[in-house]
């Protein structure tokens, strides 16, 4: 089974044969074999995906075309809004009793 890592740039081929630039949101599910992609929030089989030909490394976004640049810009803006609404939480460490002083 072919698997894709999160954030990998891929080309999705839909049922009508259209090729769409997108990226993987989560890893490929090992139980179902489906990969969750950004395009229409779909879960698709690996035979409908291929690594984007402009990909150089695992997480390279191909920004040589206007569509890819706009996609990245919209995502950056979307997650900036999401991040700004999150409240920072500080986890408390459990108190550790001091048993003895070292000399």
What order do the helices and strands come in, and which of them pair?
Layout: E1 9-13, E2 19-28, E3 34-37, E4 43-45, E5 49-51, H1 66-85
Antiparallel strand pairs: 1-2, 1-5, 2-3, 3-4
Give an account of the 3D structure.
With 103 residues, the chain is an alpha+beta fold. It contains 1 helix and 5 strands; from the N terminus they run E-E-E-E-E-H. Helices cover 19% and strands 24% of the residues. The protein has a 5-stranded antiparallel beta sheet, with helices on one face. Strand 2 and strand 3 (34-37) form a beta hairpin. The mean pLDDT is 78.
List keywords for this structure.
alpha+beta, 103 residues, 1 helix, five-stranded antiparallel β-sheet, 19% helix, extended, single chain
The gist of it:
The chain has 103 residues and is α+β, with helices and mostly antiparallel strands. It has one helix spanning 66-85; strands at residues 9-13, 19-28, 34-37, 43-45, 49-51.
Overall 3D geometry?
extended
- Average pLDDT score: 78
Radius of gyration: 21 Å
What structural category do the secondary elements indicate? alpha+beta
């Amino acid at each position: 089974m072919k698997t894709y890592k999160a954030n990998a740039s891929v080309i999705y081929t839909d049922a009508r044969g259209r090729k769409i630039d997108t990226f993987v949101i989560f890893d490929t599910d090992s139980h179902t074999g489906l990969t969750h992609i950004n395009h229409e929030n779909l879960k698709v089989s690996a035979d409908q995906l291929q690594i984007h030909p402009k990909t150089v490394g695992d997480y390279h976004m191909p920004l040589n075309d206007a569509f890819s640049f706009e996609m990245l810009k919209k995502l950056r803006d979307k997650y900036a809004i999401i991040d700004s609404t999150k409240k920072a939480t500080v986890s408390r460490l459990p108190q550790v009793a001091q048993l003895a002083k070292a000399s």
